[in-house]
Amino acid sequence: MNPQVLSSLTASIPHRWTELSDAVTVLKKRWRRGKYLKAYVEEKPFETISFKIHGPSASDLLDNFDVVKKWVEDWEAKLRQKSGQPLYSIQYRNVRNGLLGDNQVPTKVVIESFEELVTLLGVQKDVEHLDEVIRETRVRVPALLSWLAKNPMKGVEYHSIWEHLLSTVIWIQTTNTKDLYLRQIDLDGIDTKFVEKNQKILDEMLSEVVPIERVNILFPSSDFSGRYGFKSKPRYTRFRILDSDITCFPSGINEVTLRTEELATLSIAVSTVFVIENEITYLAFPRVKNALVVFGSGFALANLDSIPWLKSKHVIYWGDIDSHGFDILSRMRSRVSSVKSMLMDSETFLGHPDQWVREPSPTNKALANLTTSEQLMYQDLITNRYGSSLRLEQERIRFSRVTRAIESVLWEIGRASESI
């Protein structure tokens, strides 16, 4: 056989020519985005799909006639399924070649019905599952149908638990959740774990059907309890009374952990509140007249707004000298502008070079609520003035400095009080 003829017979179809698999890949991506299912859910007429086919040129006919012929035959061979029903139709264009004359080659594939599309893509199961979801939604929560039309693949994805999702939506929609914990949802087959696992999809569904005043947008969807008015797990505050003359608890008790909401109702006769991050430092904190010490920076951010009487006290925050320590300080001060820091300055940092360590994941965001000296120290850290990602943890500071710092802070507070 002529080598040139053999070459044309064995040549593969060029990548620039569209094959059926290319069309199916593109159409499946559109399907997964829900493009063709929105109209299906809304029971609107199917819009014919026309997909452009890139095929051979006149020179391709001359150079690779057998390959062109096979490419055309491949398209036409797949026109119908085994039952004889059409999968699609083809529109042709004329390609003229001086030697070979006129030749008809595919230029568009046309899909004229939803059934053709479903069969071509092999997504019959998707449709079956969506049909079940539509039927159940129409009966139980018809207000969700418009959302389902916008998010049909959510129905497909969650079809196996759709009944439970609807039951949960109905229960929350019709129940006053104000005095209930999430654990008190009382439905067959639905427990706290189910709600926590599916809180994102439940949030999307509930946002469509409950009154807007029932959704607390201050809470993200990840805090499902807060967002939909359930009682949240209580916050606790651990603190020590530093003045032995203060007797707000039974004799011999100077450290307690209380629900924060209960602490907010107490009247504790202190003038100064220290907030300390490190537990051992908290436990070792020395006696101070008219003062208490609170353990945990998490307290500072979560509870400042929950304990009104804190704002009438002198609040002193002592955190690590690192980017996150200053971030916490800045956020605290955005809530209580009078918050002061202790041992978070350049003098303390530079006085302990042998105790510097690396901060694992520093931040470098702008902090608006730092004093001039705090801001200078923060900038030195985030610009790596003394080394990359350095930090000085509070438990590494010499304890003699701690006692001197407390005396200095109390002296400043006293002086400020005298000047008022």
List the helices and strands and how they pair.
Blueprint: H1 3-10, H2 20-32, H3 37-41, E1 49-52, H4 58-63, H5 65-77, E2 89-97, E3 101-111, H6 114-121, H7 124-140, H8 145-150, H9 152-157, H10 162-173, H11 192-197, H12 199-209, H13 224-227, E4 236-241, E5 255-259, H14 260-263, E6 272-276, H15 279-284, E7 291-295, H16 297-303, E8 314-318, H17 323-335, E9 340-341, H18 346-350, E10 357-358, H19 372-382, E11 390-391, H20 399-419
Helix pairs in contact: 7-10, 10-12
Structure at a glance:
The protein is an alpha/beta fold.
Describe the structure.
By secondary structure, the chain is an alpha/beta fold. It has 3 domains: 3-122, no CATH class; 138-227, no CATH class; 237-419, Dna Topoisomerase Vi A Subunit, Chain: A, domain 2, CATH 3.40.1360. The protein contains 20 helices and 11 strands. It has helices at 3-10, 20-32, 37-41, 58-63, 65-77, 114-121, 124-140, 145-150, 152-157, 162-173, 192-197, 199-209, 224-227, 260-263, 279-284, 297-303, 323-335, 346-350, 372-382, 399-419, and strands at 49-52, 89-97, 101-111, 236-241, 255-259, 272-276, 291-295, 314-318, 340-341, 357-358, 390-391. Strands 5-4-7-6-8-9 form a 6-stranded mixed β-sheet. Strands 1-3-2 form a 3-stranded antiparallel β-sheet. The protein has a two-stranded antiparallel sheet with strand order 10-11. Helix 17 links the parallel strand 8 and strand 9 (340-341). Helix 7 (124-140) packs parallel to helix 10 (162-173) and helix 10 (162-173) crosses helix 12 (199-209). The longest helix has 21 residues, at 399-419. The relative contact order is 0.06. The model is unreliable at 1-10 (pLDDT under 50).
